[in-house]
Amino acid sequence: MPNLHEGTLDAKGKRVAIVASRFNDFVTHRLVDGAIDCLTRNGADESALEIYWVPGSFEVPQLAHKLSQSMEFDGILCLGTIIRGDTYHFDVLSGAVFRSISDLAARSQIPVTHGVITADSPDQAMDRAGGKGGNKGWDGAQALIEMMNLWKS
After folding, report:
1. 6 or 50, which is more confident?
2. How many angstroms separate the CA atoms of 134 and 26, rounded?
3. From CA 90, how far away is CA 94, in angstroms rounded?
4. Which residues are catalytic?
5. Closest CA to 35 of 101, 113, 150
6. What's the rounded mean pLDDT across residues 91-104?
7. 44-84: pLDDT as tens digits
8. Where does the chain show beta strands of DSSP type E?
9. All domains of the chain, ordered by start, with CATH?
């Protein structure tokens, strides 16, 4: 029988950095609230959570990279909201942000997860930030908790 390894949902004693985009903050604030709710319901102390607001989603992986090098945190959660507009900018930006976060997660000495959402409209974004589509901030935090514990096992 193979050995099974999986993370648990216990955030007690964990220090977490949340890097969030101010652009489209009417949605991103809800993602941050969902993440904090998930982390504290699973044992994290609010005083161990550090929230960093950056101008836009493009800047999220930049600061997350810097924070990952500090080794002050057990994990980092990247949050933001990218809503499609009338130009190609949405596709370029979302691709760059997701690729940067993915590259950071692969190279980092600590777990890095994300709840950056892309949406075709503000209504669709709100649905994914606590509406009928759940809360991707919560989902990203839950994945981070599991990864922090799996990392230590």
Report:
1. 50
2. 16
3. 6
4. 89
5. 113
6. 96
7. 999 999 999 999 999 999 999 999 999 999 999 999 999 99
8. 16-21, 49-54, 75-83, 112-119, 129-131, 134-135
9. 16-148 (3.40.50.960)
CB 124 within 8 A of CB 98: no
Question: For residue 4, what pLDDT band results from cuts at 50, 70 and 90?
Answer: confident
Amino acid identity of 83?
I
For 53, the 3-state DSSP assignment is: strand
C-beta separation of 144 from 77 below 8 A: yes
Res 54: pLDDT: 98
Rounded to two decimals, the pTM is 0.96
Residue 142 CA from chain centroid, whole number: 10
Quick one: 38 exposed, middle or buried, by C-beta within 10 A (0-12, 13-18, 19+)? Answer: buried
